[in-house]
Protein backbone atom coordinates (compact mmCIF):
# COMPACT_ATOMS: atom_id res chain seq x y z
CA UNK A 1 0.00 0.00 0.00
CA UNK A 2 2.86 2.40 0.78
CA UNK A 3 4.08 1.92 -2.81
CA UNK A 4 0.70 2.87 -4.27
CA UNK A 5 -0.40 5.63 -1.90
CA UNK A 6 1.63 8.31 -0.18
CA UNK A 7 -0.95 9.73 2.27
CA UNK A 8 -4.25 9.19 4.05
CA UNK A 9 -6.90 11.92 4.04
CA UNK A 10 -9.52 11.95 6.80
CA UNK A 11 -12.59 13.59 5.27
CA UNK A 12 -15.39 14.69 7.57
CA UNK A 13 -18.39 16.99 7.91
CA UNK A 14 -16.97 19.66 10.20
CA UNK A 15 -18.66 21.56 12.98
CA UNK A 16 -18.57 24.85 14.92
CA UNK A 17 -16.08 25.25 17.73
CA UNK A 18 -17.60 28.28 19.44
CA UNK A 19 -20.73 30.48 19.46
CA UNK A 20 -19.44 32.80 16.72
CA UNK A 21 -18.92 29.82 14.40
CA UNK A 22 -22.45 28.48 14.53
CA UNK A 23 -24.29 30.63 11.96
CA UNK A 24 -21.40 30.70 9.43
CA UNK A 25 -21.14 26.93 9.74
CA UNK A 26 -24.89 26.44 9.16
CA UNK A 27 -24.77 28.74 6.13
CA UNK A 28 -22.02 26.52 4.72
CA UNK A 29 -24.13 23.41 5.29
CA UNK A 30 -27.18 24.77 3.42
CA UNK A 31 -25.35 26.84 0.80
CA UNK A 32 -27.31 26.99 -2.44
CA UNK A 33 -30.58 25.76 -0.92
CA UNK A 34 -32.12 29.14 -0.18
CA UNK A 35 -32.64 28.51 3.54
CA UNK A 36 -33.21 31.86 5.33
CA UNK A 37 -31.24 32.85 8.41
CA UNK A 38 -34.42 32.86 10.50
CA UNK A 39 -34.68 29.10 10.08
CA UNK A 40 -30.99 28.58 10.68
CA UNK A 41 -31.29 30.55 13.92
CA UNK A 42 -33.69 27.90 15.18
CA UNK A 43 -31.19 25.17 14.44
CA UNK A 44 -28.40 27.26 15.94
CA UNK A 45 -30.09 27.10 19.33
CA UNK A 46 -29.29 23.39 19.51
CA UNK A 47 -25.57 24.21 19.18
CA UNK A 48 -25.73 27.15 21.59
CA UNK A 49 -27.21 24.80 24.18
CA UNK A 50 -23.75 23.15 24.20
CA UNK A 51 -21.74 26.35 24.09
CA UNK A 52 -21.72 26.53 20.29
CA UNK A 53 -19.37 23.57 20.06
CA UNK A 54 -19.96 20.42 18.04
CA UNK A 55 -18.06 17.37 19.32
CA UNK A 56 -17.12 16.22 15.82
CA UNK A 57 -13.88 18.17 15.43
CA UNK A 58 -12.60 17.04 18.81
CA UNK A 59 -13.48 13.47 17.97
CA UNK A 60 -11.67 13.75 14.65
CA UNK A 61 -8.56 15.08 16.38
CA UNK A 62 -8.63 12.06 18.67
CA UNK A 63 -9.08 9.78 15.66
CA UNK A 64 -6.17 11.44 13.84
CA UNK A 65 -3.92 10.95 16.86
CA UNK A 66 -4.95 7.30 17.14
CA UNK A 67 -4.34 6.64 13.43
CA UNK A 68 -0.92 8.30 13.51
CA UNK A 69 0.05 6.35 16.61
CA UNK A 70 -1.11 3.09 15.04
CA UNK A 71 0.80 3.82 11.82
CA UNK A 72 3.96 4.60 13.79
CA UNK A 73 3.63 1.48 15.94
CA UNK A 74 3.35 -0.65 12.81
CA UNK A 75 6.15 1.03 10.86
CA UNK A 76 3.81 2.60 8.32
CA UNK A 77 5.30 5.89 7.17
CA UNK A 78 2.18 7.44 5.74
CA UNK A 79 1.30 11.07 6.52
CA UNK A 80 -2.28 11.68 7.65
CA UNK A 81 -4.22 14.81 6.67
CA UNK A 82 -7.64 16.12 7.68
CA UNK A 83 -10.19 18.08 5.67
CA UNK A 84 -13.85 19.02 6.26
CA UNK A 85 -16.77 19.78 3.99
CA UNK A 86 -18.27 22.60 6.04
CA UNK A 87 -15.70 24.01 8.48
CA UNK A 88 -12.01 24.37 9.24
CA UNK A 89 -9.87 22.71 8.12
CA UNK A 90 -11.64 23.03 4.77
CA UNK A 91 -11.10 20.28 2.22
CA UNK A 92 -9.75 22.56 -0.51
CA UNK A 93 -7.16 24.04 1.88
CA UNK A 94 -6.06 20.54 2.86
CA UNK A 95 -5.68 19.47 -0.78
CA UNK A 96 -3.57 22.59 -1.43
CA UNK A 97 -1.31 21.67 1.48
CA UNK A 98 -1.01 18.13 0.21
CA UNK A 99 -0.03 19.43 -3.22
CA UNK A 100 2.62 21.66 -1.63
CA UNK A 101 3.89 18.66 0.33
CA UNK A 102 4.30 16.66 -2.87
CA UNK A 103 1.50 14.18 -2.22
CA UNK A 104 0.51 12.54 -5.49
CA UNK A 105 -2.01 9.84 -4.53
CA UNK A 106 -4.00 9.56 -1.33
CA UNK A 107 -6.52 7.23 0.24
CA UNK A 108 -9.62 9.02 1.54
CA UNK A 109 -11.38 7.81 4.67
CA UNK A 110 -14.84 9.38 4.99
CA UNK A 111 -16.09 9.42 8.57
CA UNK A 112 -19.66 8.45 7.63
CA UNK A 113 -20.29 4.71 7.89
CA UNK A 114 -23.47 4.46 5.79
CA UNK A 115 -24.45 5.36 2.23
CA UNK A 116 -26.91 8.07 1.31
CA UNK A 117 -26.60 11.17 -0.83
CA UNK A 118 -25.40 13.38 2.03
CA UNK A 119 -23.17 10.73 3.58
CA UNK A 120 -21.61 9.37 0.40
CA UNK A 121 -22.23 10.99 -2.97
CA UNK A 122 -22.04 14.54 -1.62
CA UNK A 123 -18.57 13.84 -0.25
CA UNK A 124 -17.47 12.75 -3.72
CA UNK A 125 -19.02 15.89 -5.21
CA UNK A 126 -17.21 18.04 -2.67
CA UNK A 127 -13.94 16.32 -3.51
CA UNK A 128 -14.50 17.20 -7.17
CA UNK A 129 -15.33 20.82 -6.26
CA UNK A 130 -12.22 21.09 -4.10
CA UNK A 131 -10.04 19.77 -6.93
CA UNK A 132 -11.60 22.29 -9.31
CA UNK A 133 -11.00 25.09 -6.79
CA UNK A 134 -7.30 24.40 -6.29
CA UNK A 135 -6.58 23.70 -9.96
CA UNK A 136 -4.11 21.21 -11.43
CA UNK A 137 -1.46 19.32 -9.50
CA UNK A 138 -3.57 18.16 -6.60
CA UNK A 139 -3.32 14.58 -5.36
CA UNK A 140 -5.39 11.79 -6.86
CA UNK A 141 -8.01 10.89 -4.27
CA UNK A 142 -9.16 7.27 -3.85
CA UNK A 143 -12.16 6.92 -1.53
CA UNK A 144 -12.24 3.89 0.75
CA UNK A 145 -15.43 1.85 1.08
CA UNK A 146 -17.97 2.63 3.79
CA UNK A 147 -17.20 0.78 7.00
CA UNK A 148 -20.70 -0.07 8.29
CA UNK A 149 -19.90 -3.81 8.43
CA UNK A 150 -16.16 -3.69 9.06
CA UNK A 151 -14.97 -5.66 12.12
CA UNK A 152 -13.20 -2.56 13.40
CA UNK A 153 -16.58 -0.81 13.53
CA UNK A 154 -18.73 -3.74 14.67
CA UNK A 155 -16.52 -5.16 17.42
CA UNK A 156 -16.45 -2.06 19.65
CA UNK A 157 -20.26 -1.98 19.52
CA UNK A 158 -20.36 -5.64 20.45
CA UNK A 159 -18.09 -4.97 23.42
CA UNK A 160 -20.22 -2.01 24.49
CA UNK A 161 -23.47 -4.01 24.33
CA UNK A 162 -21.98 -6.89 26.30
CA UNK A 163 -20.71 -4.45 28.89
CA UNK A 164 -24.10 -2.78 29.15
CA UNK A 165 -25.85 -6.10 29.70
CA UNK A 166 -23.28 -7.11 32.31
CA UNK A 167 -23.92 -3.89 34.23
CA UNK A 168 -27.63 -4.70 34.71
CA UNK A 169 -29.02 -6.47 37.72
CA UNK A 170 -29.85 -10.11 36.85
CA UNK A 171 -33.62 -9.57 37.06
CA UNK A 172 -33.48 -6.66 34.63
CA UNK A 173 -30.90 -8.29 32.40
CA UNK A 174 -33.24 -11.20 31.63
CA UNK A 175 -35.93 -8.84 30.32
CA UNK A 176 -33.72 -6.24 28.68
CA UNK A 177 -34.26 -5.56 24.98
CA UNK A 178 -31.57 -4.45 22.58
CA UNK A 179 -32.69 -1.47 20.49
CA UNK A 180 -30.70 0.13 17.67
CA UNK A 181 -31.22 3.77 16.70
CA UNK A 182 -29.75 5.85 13.91
CA UNK A 183 -29.87 9.29 12.35
CA UNK A 184 -32.85 9.75 10.04
CA UNK A 185 -32.84 11.08 6.50
CA UNK A 186 -35.82 11.81 4.17
CA UNK A 187 -37.65 8.60 3.18
CA UNK A 188 -37.82 9.52 -0.49
CA UNK A 189 -34.07 9.86 -0.61
CA UNK A 190 -33.46 6.57 1.18
CA UNK A 191 -35.59 5.03 -1.57
CA UNK A 192 -33.07 6.40 -4.09
CA UNK A 193 -29.97 5.36 -2.16
CA UNK A 194 -27.69 2.91 -3.92
CA UNK A 195 -28.37 0.13 -6.42
CA UNK A 196 -31.89 -1.13 -5.80
CA UNK A 197 -32.67 1.70 -3.38
CA UNK A 198 -32.85 1.92 0.42
CA UNK A 199 -29.10 1.30 0.79
CA UNK A 200 -28.86 3.55 3.84
CA UNK A 201 -31.50 1.68 5.83
CA UNK A 202 -30.25 -1.70 4.55
CA UNK A 203 -26.74 -0.97 5.78
CA UNK A 204 -28.07 0.19 9.15
CA UNK A 205 -29.98 -3.04 9.58
CA UNK A 206 -26.98 -5.11 8.55
CA UNK A 207 -24.79 -3.38 11.13
CA UNK A 208 -27.49 -3.95 13.76
CA UNK A 209 -27.73 -7.63 12.79
CA UNK A 210 -23.98 -8.15 13.06
CA UNK A 211 -23.82 -6.54 16.49
CA UNK A 212 -26.90 -8.39 17.77
CA UNK A 213 -25.72 -11.80 16.60
CA UNK A 214 -22.43 -11.42 18.45
CA UNK A 215 -23.52 -9.52 21.54
CA UNK A 216 -27.05 -10.74 22.19
CA UNK A 217 -27.89 -13.74 19.97
CA UNK A 218 -30.92 -14.89 21.98
CA UNK A 219 -32.43 -11.55 22.88
CA UNK A 220 -35.30 -9.67 21.21
CA UNK A 221 -34.03 -6.86 19.03
CA UNK A 222 -35.70 -3.69 17.74
CA UNK A 223 -34.31 -1.00 15.45
CA UNK A 224 -35.38 2.57 14.91
CA UNK A 225 -34.00 5.23 12.61
CA UNK A 226 -34.63 8.21 14.83
CA UNK A 227 -36.76 11.04 13.50
CA UNK A 228 -34.78 14.30 13.35
CA UNK A 229 -35.74 17.34 15.37
CA UNK A 230 -38.60 18.94 13.48
CA UNK A 231 -37.02 22.38 13.35
CA UNK A 232 -33.72 20.94 12.14
CA UNK A 233 -35.46 18.91 9.45
CA UNK A 234 -37.36 21.94 8.16
CA UNK A 235 -34.35 24.22 8.18
CA UNK A 236 -31.64 21.84 7.04
CA UNK A 237 -33.44 19.62 4.56
CA UNK A 238 -36.88 21.05 3.93
CA UNK A 239 -37.93 17.46 4.07
CA UNK A 240 -39.14 15.18 6.79
CA UNK A 241 -42.72 15.29 5.60
CA UNK A 242 -42.62 11.75 4.32
CA UNK A 243 -41.90 8.94 6.70
CA UNK A 244 -41.93 5.25 6.16
CA UNK A 245 -42.03 2.44 8.65
CA UNK A 246 -39.50 -0.25 7.88
CA UNK A 247 -37.74 -2.36 10.43
CA UNK A 248 -37.11 -5.70 12.01
CA UNK A 249 -39.66 -4.71 14.61
CA UNK A 250 -40.33 -0.97 14.29
CA UNK A 251 -38.00 1.24 12.28
CA UNK A 252 -38.84 4.79 11.33
CA UNK A 253 -36.82 5.96 8.34
CA UNK A 254 -36.36 9.35 6.87
CA UNK A 255 -33.47 9.51 4.35
CA UNK A 256 -31.22 11.90 1.73
CA UNK A 257 -30.59 9.99 -1.61
CA UNK A 258 -27.49 8.16 -2.86
Quaternary assembly: single chain
Helix content: 40-55%
* Tally of individual helices: 10
CATH architecture of the largest domain: 3-Layer(aba) Sandwich
- How large is the radius of gyration? 20 Å
CATH topology of the largest domain: Rossmann fold
What gap, in angstroms, lies between the N and C termini? 29 Å
- The tally of structural domains comes to 2
**Overall average pLDDT:** 85
Largest sheet properties? 4 strands, parallel
Within the largest sheet, what's the order of strands? 2-1-3-4
CATH class of the largest domain: Alpha Beta
**Global morphology:** globular
- Based on secondary structure, the structural category is alpha/beta
How many extended strands?
Answer: 8
Task: Indicate the proportion of strand residues.
Answer: 5-15%
Amino acid sequence: MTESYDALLLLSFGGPEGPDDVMPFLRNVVRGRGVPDERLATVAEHYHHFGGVSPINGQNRELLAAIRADFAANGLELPVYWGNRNWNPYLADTLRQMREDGIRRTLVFVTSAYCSYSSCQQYKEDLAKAHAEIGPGGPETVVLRRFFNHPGFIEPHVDAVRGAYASLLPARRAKARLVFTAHSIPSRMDAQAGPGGHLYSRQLREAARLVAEEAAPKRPVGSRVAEPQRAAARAMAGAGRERTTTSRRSSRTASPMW
